[in-house]
Amino acid sequence: MRGVSRFLIIGLTFLMASSVYGMDVSENVTISGVIKNETASGLEMDEFMKIENTVQMGVEYRPTDYFHIFGLFRFFYDGVFDAEEQYKPARSELYRTDVTNDWLRELYVDFLSNRLDVRMGRQQVVWGTADGVKILDAVNPTDMREFTLDDYADSRIPLWMLKLEYAPTLNGTFQFLFVPDFQANYIPPLNAPFTFRGSQLGQASVASWLMAGGSVSLNEDVKPDPWKDLSETTIGLRWLDVLGGFEYTLNFLYGFYLSGANYSWFVPSPTYPPGPIPGVNTLNLEKRYERIYLYGASFTKALTKGPLSGLTLRGEFAYIQDVPTYYGTDGKVAGPPAKMDNFNYVLGFDKDIVTNWFTSLQFIQLITSEKDYQGYGLLFGPTLGQMDQVTTMLSLKVSTDFMHERLKPEVLVIYGFDNDWKISPKVQFEILNSLVAVAGVHIFEGKPENLYGQFDDNDELFFELRFGF
Questions:
Q1: pTM score
Q2: What is the CATH number of the domain that holds 421?
Q3: pLDDT above 70 for 82
Q4: H or E stretch covering 91
Q5: Which one of 110, 158, 236, 269 is separated from 458 by 20 to 30 angstroms, measured CA to CA?
């Protein structure tokens, strides 16, 4: 009952606070926004995992049809790092001002013409649209403080960039990205609700070295700085075209491995030989962000004739060169990351069944160019568990609506062939035109060395109240 009372108190407080609003705008200015509370707890409802309050506002100025200015501002606070003792040590790291909680989400200027559109400023670029997994969506980094549970529009980290879109043909568009900005994927720190197993094992290894009498030197992350050196700029190219109802893209990205790779080495004392000797050698730790090359493609085709009429086929493919990859035994890295190539793809099948029941089935494979390295098996970065050369997953999304689209239930299931699961049912109810409530659960099952199994004890019940204006 204590957990239920917490949810009711927070929900009622938020509802009263959001019931008063008012805003006047001119004919050239549009202001929209959202105020929301997101609260999550364990399934037993005995502790919070999230108490996040967010205010987001977008302002668009359109003096002419060919010139727009847009700004998106977001402020949020997650009280779980004050309310729950076990998460307090992570608070200072999660709320550093130089990471993803920057209040300025987007700020850009659009110059539009019949064939050429120019967008300059801080923005998001979306290449991929797969459910629950990112294949081509690699331009912007990702805030993973909530693992993969947050909406991509919220977890994607905007970057300062120049985007040009030129339409030489009726249906064809060429996109060019010049990104003189760099931010890494945000990895949850220790003691956060979704700290990766790999981070925990790394910390335990360092602690063991210190207890044995060794010393540790934490070097500053080696990050690209395109503002100082243009050779570290990210470049993106995409061609999009539609031929007879067949939409396709060709993609190229010259960027960085945004999760970074951890390197470690020993610096011996001048009087001792090299090697891991506690008390006389220093363990150096450093994170680097290596260059990668992404070659990709996607397609979408809706079938309008025959027995499969109404079925939409889609796919995304990405070949990524020089991905830093760990190797060793479960939980133990045997040497510095080795550069390997990855081929990742998803095939999707979407169809409306019985009028308004939407179903989406995806077949996903993540393939590494090597099955082992120097006699060791490959390790999965987030967990440091043994990784197969080919990882295969299936996903199924089913959604529908009732009460004239006011009640919208949905479920997303992702299953890995190594018996790794994530099940996320939710229901959305439109209380008023501008007030929406969402409730659901996230359930994880699997072994701790796998993507979802590492959070087997992190099943959560969540509730969201969202007020739009």
A1: 0.89
A2: 2.40.160.10
A3: yes
A4: helix 91-94
A5: 158
